[in-house]
Amino acid sequence: MTISKKRSPLRVAGLAIVWLIVAADIALLIWIFLTSLRDTKDIFARPFALPTSAELGNYANAWGEGGFGAAALSSVLLAVVSSIAAVAISAPAAYMLARRRTRTSNSITMLFAMGLGVPGQVLLVPLFVAMASVGLVDTYTGLNLIYIGLALPFTVYLLTGFFAGVPLVLEEAAAIDGASGVRAFVRVILPVARGGLITAFLLHFIGSWNETLFAIAFMQSDDKVTLPVALVNFVKMQQFNGLDWGTMFAGMCIILAPMVALFAWMGSRIIQGMTVGIGK
């Protein structure tokens, strides 16, 4: 029975489609990297050919003249700070919601889940007006606050599942040893739920790294833009002088490289963490 299911035509077709998509994605990434090593004239002459010589100057131009170097520092700062803050705020809230299974806590959990369905475009104008009124437009603090707020619904919902799976006997043992509730949470519960915390951090880091809408609206200084915005600005700057395609593809590689490395290193942990956390 099991063998027939494994060899069913539907399963084979599904696996074939999945591997086809994976192969297409890998081929696209390889093409972007190879194109970043070519000059504009060669790209237009032979779009899918291999580079005859490595134009490493494209990366130097992208990092310096293209503004991707300063943008990379901004992206790292925003992604790291907002991810740490979001997890630090969400963890205690998720823990209390997981442990206090009452009608009120269940309703609050559902409110966080409903927050996942609110599109960011709806919040753009109200947030801009609010941030402008307190002078937080074009500041790292303002954009960090927005990223943290947008991350809270999903992060709390994800971590609630992780904390629900932590055995209650661990807290009882800590209480017997004289540990307070806060100390038991910090010294016992957080280390046990470390996988969930890392997963939540990585997911928010990826989202902040790739976020474009709020970064374009709130960061108006050239020295504060993030990498996706730097790519948009580079294309706009080059459209009147003739786009330097090699430098543009080099900038795309600068944006993609950390994410590709992160998924190659921690991809299985991210998928496992999402499955365990949301499944509970």
UniProtKB/TrEMBL annotation:
**What Pfam families does the annotation carry?**
BPD_transp_1
**Positions of transmembrane segments:** 12-34, 76-98, 110-133, 145-170, 182-206, 245-265
Name any Gene Ontology BP term: transmembrane transport
Q: Tell me which PROSITE patterns the record gives.
A: ABC_TM1 (PS50928)
Q: How does it sit in the membrane?
A: Multi-pass membrane protein
Any idea what this protein is called?
Answer: Carbohydrate ABC transporter permease
- Which cellular component, as a GO term, is one annotated location? plasma membrane
**Locate the ABC transmembrane type-1 domain: which residues?**
72-266
Family, per entry: Belongs to the binding-protein-dependent transport system permease family. MalFG subfamily.
- Tell me which species this is from: Bailinhaonella thermotolerans
Q: Where in the cell is it found?
A: Cell membrane
* Keywords, in A-Z order: Cell membrane, Membrane, Sugar transport, Transmembrane, Transmembrane helix, Transport
